Amino acid sequence: MTDPPRTDALHTAPARTDPPRAEAPRTDAPRTDVSRTDASPAGPARGGAPRADPSGFDLARLLAERGSERYDLHTRHLNHQLPRMLHTLGFDKVYERAEGAYFWDAEGDDYLDMLSGFGVMGLGRHHPVVRKALHDVLDLSLADLTRFDCQPLPGLLAEKLLAHSPHLDRVFFTSSGTEAVETALKFARRATGRSRILYCDHAFHGLTAGSLSVNGESGFRDGFGPLLADTAVPLGDLGALERELDRGDVAALIVEPIQGKGVHEAPPGFLRAARELLHRRKALLIADEVQTGLGRTGDFYAHQHEEGVEPDLVCVAKALSGGYVPVGAALGKDWIFRKVYSSMDRVLVHSASFGSNAQAMAAGLAVLSVIEDEQLVANARVTGELLRTRLTALVDRYEFLHQVRGRGLMTGIEFGRPVSLKLRGRWTMLQAARKGLFAQMVVVPLLHRHRILTQVSGDRLEVIKLIPPLTIGEREVDRFVTAFTSVMDDAHSGGGLMWDFGRTLIRQAAADRP
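Given the sequence above, the corresponding C-alpha cells read:
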C-alpha cells in the first residue's frame, strides 16, 4: 500500500472518569452508546406484522442477576476443563467491559489485549463503524435468507474482497474459518477429480473433520479418527512435495503462509515454487489466510509478501467478522466454481445455512471499509516492525530469549536453553516436567503484574505469540516492551514470584500425567 504509515493508536479505549494508571494509555475517542432509542419504530413493523413485546426478556437484568455465576455455569454445563485451567493460571478474571485494544475489570483497571481473541478482533473491540453497520442492517428489517432470491450484500462484500484478490474470481461465504477450509478442500477435490490433500507439519486449519485431517498436530487429531487420507510434508521441503505429487492422486496443498503455531514463515521462494510444482501435476494451491489475512502481516494477504504467488483458493475469516458476527469465505478461480456448480441440479451441492446472512455481510463490509479508511495494513507493517525491532534488541541481554520473528502484527517470541549453569538448571527442571512451561511462566506475570493478555503459541512450545488488534500504536508497543523487560529481569534473577509460580506449574504438570 502507498498509504502513509501510522504509529499512533488508531482505535483504542476511550477515557474514563477515574484516574488512569501511569502505564495505561487512554484516548479521547467517543464511545458509541449500546442502547439506541431509535433502533426500531414504534408500532407495527414494515409489512404490517406487529412486533413482539420485548419486556419479558431483559438481557441486562439477566446478566446483572446471574453474571457472577459465570465460572460455575461453565463448569457445570460447558467444557469443565476450561475454568479449571483458568483457575490454575490465575486467569479467571472478571472483565466488565472492553473497547479497542483494552479490557476493564470491576475495579476500573485496564488490560492491554495482545491476543485479540486469537485474531478475531482485528479492529479491536466494539469499533463504532462496525457497530453502526450492525444497527443499520437490523433497522432495515431485510428479507434475509429467503433462499430463493439474491440479496445485494453478499455480492457487494464478494466484490470488495475480490478487489484485494485480483487473480481470483468468486467467493463462497461461510460462518467460520474451519468451514472456509472445508469448502476449499471439497472444491479442490471436485475440480481435480483427486482425493488426497497435502498439508504441512505443525499446521492448524481448524477442528471439524475435514480440517482436522490436515491438522499437523497429533494432539488435536488423537481419538477422532478415522480421518481423510491426507499426508503431511515439512514446511519448505520442495523435495517431499514433489515425491508426493509423483503418486498422481494429489488434489491440493493447503498451507499457512505464516503458521500460527510457533509463528513460522514459509521459506523465501517456497510458495511460488510449490505452486509451479502443483500446477505441473494438475494440483492446486490453497492458502489458509484465516489468521494471516486482512492486513495482519502488513499486506492484505500474507502470500502477497512473495511476488508471483497466486493461490487457486484462499480462505479468510476471523477479522472479517469485526468481532461480532461469525463470517468466513473461500475465494477461488472461476473454473473451480464452475466445476463444483456444473449444472442447475447441482446449485445447492455445497451451501451454508448462515453463510451469507445480512448481519455477517454488513460486518464484513464495515471491516473492509475501516481497514482502508484507517490505513490498518500500513499500520500493521510499521507498528509490527517497531515491536520486533525493540524486542530483538533484548536477545543479547537475556539468556532465555532466543529469537523474535514474524511479520506485521504477528510476532513470535521464542525462549530457549540458557548458557549459564544456574539458569540452565532451572530450565532443565521445567523441561523435565513439561515443555512449554517457561513460556507459560512469562505469560502469567504479564497478565498478573502488568495487565497484558498474551498466549503461548502452542502446546509444549516455548513461544509466545502476539497478535494484537491492527489498531495499536507506539504507546501499546512501549507498554508491552516495558512489561516484557520487567518479566525477563525477574526470570534471570532466579527468584521471585515467577519461579514460585513455576513450581506450581510443575506440580500441575505432574498431576495431569496419565
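The first strand starts at residue 95 and ends at 99. Try to locate this feature in the C-alpha cell string yourself.
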